[in-house]
Amino acid sequence: MAVTDAAIDKIKEMIVSGELAPGARLPKEADLAERLGLSRNSLREAVRALALINVLDVRQGDGTYVTSLEPRLLLDALSFVVDFHRDDTVLEFFQVRRILEPSATAMAAANMGPDDIKELRAILEALPENPNIEQLVANDLEFHQRIALGSGNTVLCSLIESLSGPTTRARIWRGLTQEGATVKTQEQHLAIYEAIAAHQPDVARAWATVHVAGVEQWLRSAL
Q1: Which tens digits make up the pLDDT trace of 120-148?
Q2: Where would I find the HTH gntR-type domain in this sequence (predicted)?
Q3: Among 38, 39, 168, 177, which residue carries the largest CB count within 10 Å?
Q4: Which residues, 6 or more positions from 91, have their beta carbon under 8 angstroms from its beta carbon?
Q5: 125 exposure class (CB count in 10 Å sphere: 0-12, 13-18, 19+)
Q6: Cβ proximity of 89 and 50 under 8 Å
Q7: What's the structural domain count of the chain?
Q8: Who's near 178: CB < 8 A, 6+ residues apart?
Q9: Same domain, 36 and 93
Q10: Are residues 215 and 189 part of one domain?
Q11: pTM higher than 0.90, yes or no?
Q12: At what angle do helices 40-52 and 3-16 cross, to 10 degrees?
């Protein structure tokens, strides 16, 4: 194992064990290096690596701290990687969406309260009567993000949000080329909303599956 990797593992062990809690400040570099049996250079490399993936926060003149370790923050690194996808892998992103989003939608139907449901309805009503493709896609993204948030699972929500980027172009492409796509999207969004508002998880799951699978099926044909 590389020295830097070993240093990363030792810091990780301190966090996992609870010795370093979210928001905690790391000991001084010299003290920590001696305690872990590392060179100061190895420790610095480990800190840089962990800072890149938002595990540590290096504050100049103040010290190095463990971040909040919230899923959204840690999954930013995944979003960065996802941005490098190739067009021929976009179907794989839709396959993952088809696995995750129906579950999130079912959870939202069970968990969302009256105020949450009102917010979801407001998103649908904010769409103009004859929206252009950009307005439709922006509304679509907001609608799905609000449902993911309504699932009550922050990890699931962050994963779904990280998958939004690679599928945006396909959504726009479909709206521009498939006849009736705009109307179909709005009808399915309404069906999903009604299932959530009625607290019907199974129905909500089914409509979410139909909704995502429809775009995936169109993309397969188009490609």
Answers
A1: 999 999 998 888 878 888 898 899 999 99
A2: 1-69
A3: 38
A4: 216, 219, 220, 223
A5: exposed
A6: no
A7: 2
A8: 218
A9: no
A10: yes
A11: no
A12: 60
